[in-house]
Amino acid sequence: MSTLEDENEIRKLIQKFTDCTNQRDTDAFVTVYADNASWQLDPPNGVAFSGTPAEIAAQAGEALSYFKALYQIVNSTTVTVTGDTATARSYITEVGLPPDQEGYFNYGLSLDSLVRTAKGWRFLRREYHTLYVDNSALAGTFKPFPVFK
User: Fold this and answer.
1) Kind of pairing, strands 33-41 and 47-51?
2) CA pair distance 67, 137, nearest whole angstrom
3) What angle do CA 36, 28, 7 make, to 5 degrees?
4) Which residues are 130's β-sheet partners?
5) Which one of 28, 54, 112, 137 has the largest count of C-beta atoms within 10 Å of its C-beta?
6) Residue 106 belongs to a domain
7) Cα–Cα distance between 30 and 53 in angstroms, integer?
8) Model pTM greater than 0.90?
9) What pLDDT, in 10s, does the model give residues 38-89?
10) What DSSP designation does 113 have?
11) Under 8 Å between Cβ of 108 and 83
12) CATH number for 91
């Protein structure tokens, strides 16, 4: 596989993670992590998960269930591939509705370490660093995702 193909597969994995988050598809989280992986989020979330893909998926499901609504957007990603390992840096925007607040707007940076497995590229480590957070009341209304027919 060429470097461009690897970079494309890694970007697709990052986008899949975001789709898992937005759809709250914890079963699909199993497909994005390597064995013995970790995922760490800075405050205000301030949680860390590690273990098998299934363990991280279960922990992610618990974290997502905290929010009444949460939508994430990947703004841009830079990827560096070195053989069967890679690093990626993605800027992320999140908007959500925690149960005890009227709003949540977050701009952050995800620093990823990835590894090529027999099943493709997987996250070995994800670190989410909050760069800006605003808990002001949101003026808009959350709508449910449409379902493919």
Assistant:
1) antiparallel
2) 15
3) 70
4) 108
5) 112
6) yes
7) 5
8) yes
9) 999 987 778 899 999 999 999 988 888 889 999 999 999 999 999 999 999 9
10) E
11) no
12) 3.10.450.50
The CB density around residue 95, as the number of other CB atoms within 10 Å, is 17
- Identity of the amino acid at 17: F
Instruction: Give 43: exposed, middle or buried? Use CB within 10 Å, 0-12, 13-18, 19+.
Output: exposed
Domain of 68, in residue numbers? 3-134
For residue 49, count CB atoms less than 10 angstroms from its CB and return exposed for 0-12, middle for 13-18, buried for 19 or more. buried
In a domain, 147, yes or no: no
User: Could you tell me which residues come within 8 angstroms of residue 91 by beta carbon, excluding any fewer than 6 positions away?
Assistant: 74, 75, 76, 77, 107, 108, 109, 110
* Listed residue (92, 112, 146) closest to 32, CA to CA: 112
Q: Assess if residue 33 is contained within a domain.
A: yes
Residue type, 97: L
CB 120 within 8 A of CB 141: no
d(CA 103, CA 105): 7
Helices (H) and strands (E) in the chain, counts: 3, 6
Tokens encoding 64: 């997502």
Residue 148 resides in a domain: no
* Both structure tokens of 34: 């390597």
Provide the strand spans (E) within 84-119.
85-97, 104-117
